[in-house]
Structures are given as C-alpha cells and as structure tokens.
Amino acid sequence: MNDIAYIQIVSALRKLRDKGLITELEYRRAKRYYAKATGTSLSIFD
Questions:
Q1: What is the spatial distance between Cα 37 and Cα 32, in angstroms, rounded to a whole number?
Q2: Whole-prediction pTM value?
Q3: Looking at beta carbons, which pairs linking 32-36 to residues 24 or more positions away fall under 8 Å?
Q4: Pick from 2, 4, 5, 21: CA 20 to 30 A from residue 43's CA?
Q5: For the chain, first and last CA: distance in Å?
Q6: Which phi and psi (to 5°) does residue 40 adopt?
C-alpha cells in the first residue's frame, strides 16, 4: 500500500513540476521526503 501511495504522490509532484509550479530542486526534495514518509521500497528514476 505504501508503494501505491508513493507512486500517486510522485505523479502529482511531476505534474506540478511540469506546469512550473515547483522547481526541479523542490521536486527532488519532496520526492525524497515522501519516500521516507511512506516507507516505500521503490526507486523512481526521472
């Protein structure tokens, strides 16, 4: 379940980044934060 939540969060973060609402640095930091918060075992490469 944690992996699914993480994938959904990353998808939303990508949309924000692609629209220019967050920077690449903010995207990377948020992705790292949510990986730890959800306890996922996934590594998503961009």
A1: 9
A2: 0.87
A3: 34/6, 34/9, 34/10, 35/6
A4: 21
A5: 22
A6: -70, 155
What is the structure's pLDDT at 1? 66
Task: Write the secondary structure of the chain as one string of H (helix), E (strand) and C (coil).
Answer: CHHHHHHHHHHHHHHHHHCCCCCHHHHHHHHHHHHHHHCCCCCCCC
CB of 30 within 8 A of CB of 10?
Answer: no
Q: What is the pLDDT of residues 11-33, one digit of tens each?
A: 999 999 999 999 999 999 999 99
Q: Write the CA distances from 14 to 32, 34, 41, integer angstroms.
A: 13, 13, 19
